[in-house]
């Protein structure tokens, strides 16, 4: 053996390694040069045959060659494209990776469910602007400027947006603004379902600054409170199931006369108002309010171009999130807007 042989082997190994572009081929070269029966070990075995004065130098060079080959193998391995590493093996019996499957947000699900229930009894879903004029949101609904009832709607007004006849621009504080727009668009008989985003300056466990309402409006001849009761009870039974009880209570809204609030038995205490001898923390009395309703005020009909002597109607406006919360016993509206998958994936 001469020392040139070691250098040649080293150079040959390095240039061979640098041309390889698959991990399996690199492994093959590693075994060929560095393996137990590899070329370098063969050289080491021959060391004994050398005269003592050359043996030390040859041993040093073999070690040096070994290190250089190891380093080249490593760096070539690191520079391989990812795909070449993946394609290295294929186990067709390995279990497949399931891509995470999403679903509609639970508010969207609820909206679809509501629309579907009302569609069956002839209510047509519509949408109106989220940026609305004061007339549609308040004044046309029998709430003139400065009327104290407006305080209930903590309204976002829009700077520098003003209509000469319809007043200031606002973010829709409730879906009731769709009532007049619908009356302008369609003559009775009409059945409208307006599901939309609403905005109010409010934020706590049961109020979000942006939330959804669904507004119903039915106008026809000879419409009475019994129709209102029947339609809303039908909806509650469809949405909550046959065992939930509902009731209506007298209330006041400017745009309906008479006006009501509509309650459903509380899911948390099962309508008892008590849990283990203590007051129910969610409803306190066994009933939960779902929203307002009433017989459309004659002034509102007139403002919508409908003759109140000839036609009557009823309307309601309820919160979408509230409905959902009362179906599943959720006590904080912020969970619905939080984007926490651990919560959202349950529905
Ligand atoms: N717009 C009312 C609110 O946001 C709810 C409401 C009450 C709507 C009575 C109606 C109704 O259509 O008749 O609080």
**Relevant CATH superfamily of the largest domain:** Bira Bifunctional Protein, Domain 2
Mean pLDDT: 92
> What is the CATH domain class of the largest domain?
Alpha Beta
Structural Rg: 38 Å
Q: Indicate the overall shape.
A: elongated
Unreliable runs: none
Structural class estimated from helices and strands:
alpha+beta
Q: For the terminal residues, how far apart are their CA atoms?
A: 77 Å
Domain tally: 2
Helix content: 25-40%
Tell me the number of strands.
12
How are the strands of the largest sheet arranged? 1-5-6-12-11-8-7
Small molecules held by this entry: 3,4-dihydroxyphenylalanine
CATH-defined architecture of the largest domain: 2-Layer Sandwich
Give a quick account of the main beta sheet: strands, pairing sense, barrel closure.
Answer: 7 strands, mixed
Question: Given the structure, what is the number of helices?
Answer: 13
**N to C succession of SSEs:** HHHHHHEEHEEHEEHEEEEEHEHHH
Strand content: 15-25%
CATH topology of the largest domain: BirA Bifunctional Protein, domain 2
Annotate the secondary structure layout.
Elements (H helix, E strand, L loop, with lengths): L2 H16 L4 H12 L4 H8 L5 H27 L3 H5 L19 H14 L4 E3 L4 E3 H4 L19 E7 L3 E5 L5 H9 L4 E10 L10 E11 L4 H16 L5 E6 L4 E10 L8 E2 L2 E2 L7 E10 L1 H6 L8 E8 H9 L5 H4 L3 H4 L3
Parallel strand pairs: 1-5
Antiparallel strand pairs: 2-4, 3-4, 5-6, 6-12, 7-8, 8-11, 9-10, 11-12
Helix pairs in contact: 1-4, 2-4, 6-11
The structure holds 3,4-dihydroxyphenylalanine.
3,4-dihydroxyphenylalanine binds next to β8, β11 and β12.
């Amino acid at each position: 053996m001469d020392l040139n042989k070691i250098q040649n082997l080293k150079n040959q190994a390095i240039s061979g390694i640098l041309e390889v572009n698959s991990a399996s081929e690199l492994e093959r070269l590693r075994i060929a040069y560095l393996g137990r029966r590899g070329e370098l070990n063969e050289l080491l075995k021959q060391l004994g045959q050398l005269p003592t004065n050359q043996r030390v130098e040859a041993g040093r060079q073999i070690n040096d060659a070994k290190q250089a080959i190891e380093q080249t193998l490593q760096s070539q391995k690191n520079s391989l494209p990812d795909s070449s590493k993946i394609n290295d093996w294929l186990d067709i019996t390995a279990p497949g990776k399931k891509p995470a499957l999403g679903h509609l947000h639970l508010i969207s699900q609820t909206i679809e469910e509501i629309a579907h229930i009302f569609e069956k009894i002839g209510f047509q879903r519509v949408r109106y602007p989220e940026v609305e004029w004061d007339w549609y949101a308040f004044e046309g609904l029998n709430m003139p400027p400065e009327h104290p009832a407006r305080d209930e709607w903590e309204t976002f007004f829009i700077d520098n947006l003003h209509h000469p006849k319809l007043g200031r621009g606002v973010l829709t504080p409730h879906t009731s603004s769709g009532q007049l727009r619908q009356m302008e668009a369609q003559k009775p008989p009409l059945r409208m379902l307006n599901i939309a985003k609403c905005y109010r300056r409010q934020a706590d466990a049961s109020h979000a600054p942006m939330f959804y309402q669904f507004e119903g409006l039915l106008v026809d001849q000879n419409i009475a409170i019994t129709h209102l009761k029947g339609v809303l009870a039908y909806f509650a039974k469809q949405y909550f199931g046959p065992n939930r009880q509902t009731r209506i209570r007298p209330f006041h809204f400017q745009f309906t006369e008479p006006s009501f609030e509509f309650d459903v038995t509380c899911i948390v205490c099962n309508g008892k108002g008590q849990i283990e001898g203590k007051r129910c923390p969610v409803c306190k009395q066994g009933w939960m309010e779902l929203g307002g309703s009433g017989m459309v005020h004659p002034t509102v009909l007139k403002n919508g171009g409908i003759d109140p002597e000839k036609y009557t109607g009823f309307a309601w406006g309820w919160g979408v999130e509230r409905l959902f919360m009362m179906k599943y016993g959720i006590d904080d509206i912020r969970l619905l807007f939080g984007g926490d998958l651990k919560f959202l994936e349950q529905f």
